[in-house]
């Protein structure tokens, strides 16, 4: 079972200081217990890294923050909303408005272009056409992939896809950004672009960033680094 180092006692009811609050969370896959009675708070506007060996529960945690995985018991509260009270549809729309997720495994649509993939969350939220174009172009610009706008994602390298995923996560300017090993598949040049964005004031100022990583360059940037314990047997 994974344990987060630097756990804190359960705070009083949500007072807006936290982007994410995890209370009494247990998570098992069948017999495998990944978390038991986990408590954790992510302060609003902070930049926290989570390090830990492969198989220690990092992706599971990020997916519970995003409401993609539900805990076996306990509650995950994001921006004051208890995710366990939401249906899958409500969760999907809450996620699109609140969370930018760069998942560890690609979730882009290979038949669509870069532009279309980055634009998807805005279409899902029925954002009007002009705003969609403006935001999609701004996100591609920020990540430096404007020239790939019309490339079909299925033909791109793993690292290039990761950058598209990054732009898609930022397109709606979400208050929370969750990155699951974001520099793992990147060459040094692309990793620098990602680091530059994470370093930039526009990102760190006000936006809550939670990133799982083995990359020392990222943990050096983070305000604090948590560690999950051992690989789950
Ligand atoms: P990490 O991201 O730190 O590598 P994960 O959160 O992906 O770790 O996995 C933690 C543990 O949970 C691992 O032992 C993994 O095999 C198991 N696990 C993760 N997802 C599933 C799943 N969908 N079904 C069964 N076991 C899973
Ligand atoms: Mg993982």
Written description of the protein model:
- The chain is of the alpha/beta class and 233 residues long.
- It has one domain: Rossmann fold (3-Layer(aba) Sandwich).
- It has helices at 58-65, 88-98, 114-124, 129-143, 158-170, 188-199, 201-204, 216-221, and strands at residues 18-29, 32-43, 47-51, 73-78, 81-82, 99-102, 176-180, 208-212, 224-227.
- The strands form 2 sheets. It has a 5-stranded parallel sheet with strand order 6-7-8-3-9.
- A hairpin with a 2-residue loop joins β1 (18-29) and β2 (32-43).
- α3 packs across α4 (129-143) and α4 (129-143) packs across α5 (158-170).
- The protein is globular.
- Residues 7-13 have low confidence and may be disordered.
- The chain binds adenosine-5'-diphosphate (ADP) and magnesium ion.
């Amino acid at each position: 079972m994974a344990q987060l180092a630097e756990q804190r006692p359960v705070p009083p009811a949500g007072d807006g200081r936290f982007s994410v609050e995890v209370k009494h969370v247990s998570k098992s896959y069948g017999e495998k217990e990944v978390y038991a009675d986990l408590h954790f708070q992510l302060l609003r506007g902070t930049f926290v890294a989570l390090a830990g060996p492969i198989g220690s529960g990092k992706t599971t945690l990020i997916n519970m923050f995003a409401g993609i995985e539900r805990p076996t018991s306990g509650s995950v509260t994001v921006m004051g909303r208890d995710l366990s009270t939401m249906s899958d549809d409500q969760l999907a729309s809450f996620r699109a408005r609140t969370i930018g997720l760069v998942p560890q495994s690609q979730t882009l649509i290979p038949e669509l272009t870069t532009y279309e993939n980055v634009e998807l969350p805005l279409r899902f939220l029925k954002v009007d056409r002009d705003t969609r174009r403006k935001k999609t172009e701004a996100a591609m610009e920020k990540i430096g992939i404007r020239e790939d706008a019309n490339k079909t994602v299925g033909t791109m390298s793993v690292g290039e896809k990761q950058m598209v995923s990054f732009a898609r996560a930022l397109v709606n300017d979400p208050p929370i950004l969750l990155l699951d090993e974001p520099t793992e598949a990147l060459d040094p040049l692309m990793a620098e672009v990602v680091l530059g964005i994470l370093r930039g004031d526009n990102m760190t100022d006000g936006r809550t960033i939670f990133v799982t990583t083995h990359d020392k360059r990222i943990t050096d940037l983070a305000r604090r680094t948590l560690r999950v314990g051992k690989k789950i047997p």
